[in-house]
Design a protein that fits this description.
By secondary structure, chain A is α/β, with parallel strands linked by helices. Chain A has 11 helices and 10 strands. In chain A, 45% of the residues are buried. With 338 residues, chain B is an all-alpha fold. Classes of the chains: A alpha/beta (261), B mainly alpha (338). Chains A and B meet through α2, α3 and α4 of A and α9, α10, α11 and α15 of B.
Chain lengths: 261, 338
């Protein structure tokens, strides 16, 4: 069994009366893409926010490489190696593309404000970026503002930014929403590249075709509870999952329909 | 020869800048070119630019509108004035010590003020500046109250003392240049990038390993140091200070300076500072209406060019580049990966 990078243990979270995480348990191993699926409002993004530290847990613990990170602030967690992307890309629209992406490299280099001011250069940013952008399959002008790019390219760039910081665990929130087929394939290639580098990846995705083809394991969330866990094949044949989420018609599964949204 | 040519091409901007600056340095401070009064106005513009340079960091890069500038300037100015007049210190050590303690004070204030977010932070910073103004006005035994402090010595070291506004200009020129370069350096360094992230999305910044709170406090401290330095220079330049120029509404003027020039541009901040120092002098005969004019001006400015003068320049450049690219790609079709 591969090394467990991330472990969520009995985590609870409620906003007022709305329970978004209830005794959630999840393990992510090295070299694994762990899918997180469920209907809208099931608590998928909340779970990512709990893991990256944007929300505090009400109860339970989160372990990263065996270390309890439950009480640590988000920036410490990302410095330790928990990277993430967002449902809609969160860049600085007023900064250039270069500045936006360099932040990822800065994180990887453990850059300090003073050392950077006095001219410390990071690792070879261009070479690695070159490799990743080749996978993403488009080109652009470095000095342009990031929101001049099409939405799909921004989403790909956000994954690249997270990858530039060399996270141990990467949390990817709906990378394929709003992307065309070609771009979805690029996302797949990028995630596989991440696996090659030895990451563990948590993937939220509504596209069943994507989830079933790239994930090694899948957790199904419904009303904040994990109702099933297993390999894609097991999930597809799990009666409870089919009823709660995937729909009773088996054809939807095979056809790879977008559920939710 | 080719090597020299490519060096020139690569650094064309820098070379032109250096030539222009050298010309300005030698031509402007001459009685035949500008009279003493205009020289004084330009000097004040440069001093304000030093304070506004700090705003470039906290507001331009970090997106935190602060009204603390005038307060920090007041602290800098009064401590220089007191150290030189009461304690008989030389101007330079007084300036350095003042900047140092105001910087340390900014750390404390930054830590406290950034407990608040967004507009709450701005309101608290107004409170801060009002507080300083009240102390400066009412601590009669130390600050002389509304009468202020007179006979502050001229800026200088040993026998090298600025005798007139032209001498001041020669010193302030280099100070302003140094501040400009420091801010540009910050803009291109990790701090600049991190502040950009915090400005546009604090949560995303945190998820990229950036401690938003600490980063904002650092920007506040930098702004405080610049403002204190500007305040000290103001005291040594005017040689008389009173609490009036350190009221919070003066902070609003500094904000207008940077907004007018372009919030994202250090050069714009310089243009804004010089213009906003010159304008009130120019429309002095309209003094009673100056607030009215400012108010209308700011409303128009924010509507017509929200990114200031340099924003317009940037947009123009951006469009030109796009146009050029279009022409290029029409000649040689670029392979697009799709």
């Amino acid at each position: 069994m591969a090394e467990v990078l991330l472990e969520v243990r009995n985590v609870n979270k409620a906003f007022g009366g709305v329970v978004t995480a209830k005794e959630v348990n999840m393990k992510v191993e090295k070299g694994e893409i762990h899918g997180l699926i469920g209907p809208n409002g099931a608590g998928k993004t909340t779970l990512l926010n709990l893991i990256s530290g944007i929300y505090d847990v009400d109860g339970g613990q989160i372990f990263f490489k065996g270390e309890d990170v439950t009480k640590l602030p988000p920036y410490t967690r990302s410095r330790m190696g928990i990277g993430r992307t967002f449902q809609s890309p969160r860049f600085s629209p007023r900064s250039s593309i270069r500045d936006n992406l360099l932040v990822g490299t800065d994180l990887d280099n453990k850059m300090g404000y003073l050392s950077s001011f006095f001219g410390k250069k990071g690792a070879d940013f261009d070479k690695e970026f070159e490799e990743l952008i080749k996978i993403a399959g488009f080109t652009f002008d470095w000095d342009e503002r990031i929101n001049s790019l099409p939405y799909g390219q921004q989403k790909l760039l956000e994954i690249i930014r997270a990858m530039l910081s060399h996270p141990t665990v990467m949390l990817v929130d709906e990378p394929c929403a709003g992307l065309n087929m070609e771009e979805q394939n690029r996302v797949k290639d990028l995630l596989n590249k991440g696996l090659e580098q030895g990451m563990g990846i948590v993937l939220i995705e509504h596209s069943m075709e994507m989830v079933m083809s790239v994930c090694h394991n899948i957790s199904v969330l419904n009303f904040g509870e994990i109702i099933a866990e297993g390999t894609p094949a097991e999930i597809q044949s799990n009666q409870q999952v089919i009823e709660a989420y995937l729909g009773k018609d088996e054809d939807t599964l095979a056809g790879g329909a977008h559920v939710g949204n | 020869m080719d090597k020299a040519k490519s060096f020139v091409q690569k650094n064309l901007g820098t070379i032109i800048g250096a030539v222009v600056l050298t010309l300005v340095f030698f031509i402007v401070p001459n009685k035949g070119v500008v009279n003493a009064y205009i020289m004084k106005v330009i000097n004040l513009g440069l001093i304000y630019f030093v304070a506004v340079a700090g705003l470039c960091v906290i507001l331009g890069m970090g997106g935190q509108p602060t009204f603390s500038t005038a307060g920090m300037m007041g602290l800098g100015a009064y401590s220089v004035a007191l150290l030189t007049t009461l304690k008989g210190w030389a101007p330079i050590p007084a300036l350095l010590v003042s900047v140092l303690w105001v910087t340390l004070f900014s750390v404390v204030m930054g830590l406290a003020l950034f407990r608040l977010k967004g507009s709450y932070f701005s309101f608290a910073s107004i409170g801060f500046t009002s507080l300083i103004f009240t102390v400066l006005t009412n601590w009669l035994s130390l600050t002389g109250g509304p009468d202020g402090i007179k006979n502050i010595p001229r800026l200088g070291i040993g026998n090298l003392v600025c005798q007139n506004y032209y001498d001041y200009f020669r010193v302030l020129f280099f100070i302003a240049l140094a501040c400009y370069l420091i801010v540009q350096r910050i803009r291109k360094s990790y701090l600049g990038r991190a502040l950009g992230c915090v400005r546009d999305n604090e949560i995303a910044a945190q998820c990229m390993g950036i401690n938003a709170y600490r980063t904002k406090v650092i920007s506040f401290v930098i702004a405080g140091a610049f403002a204190a330095f500007a305040g000290g220079l103001y005291a040594l330049h005017e040689r008389y200070i009173s609490p009036a120029p350190f009221q919070y509404d003066q902070s609003a003027i500094y904000l207008i300076m940077i907004m007018l020039g372009g919030v994202n541009s250090t050069g714009g901040a310089l243009i804004g500072s010089l213009f906003m120092t010159w304008l009130p002098e120019r429309i002095r005969f309209l003094a009673a209406y100056s607030r009215l004019i400012y108010g209308i001006g700011v409303i128009i400015l924010m509507n017509v060019m929200p990114m200031g003068i340099m924003g317009l320049v940037d947009n123009f450049r951006y469009k030109m580049r796009k146009k050029m690219k279009k022409n290029q790609s029409a000649e040689t079709p670029v392979k697009e990966a799709e």
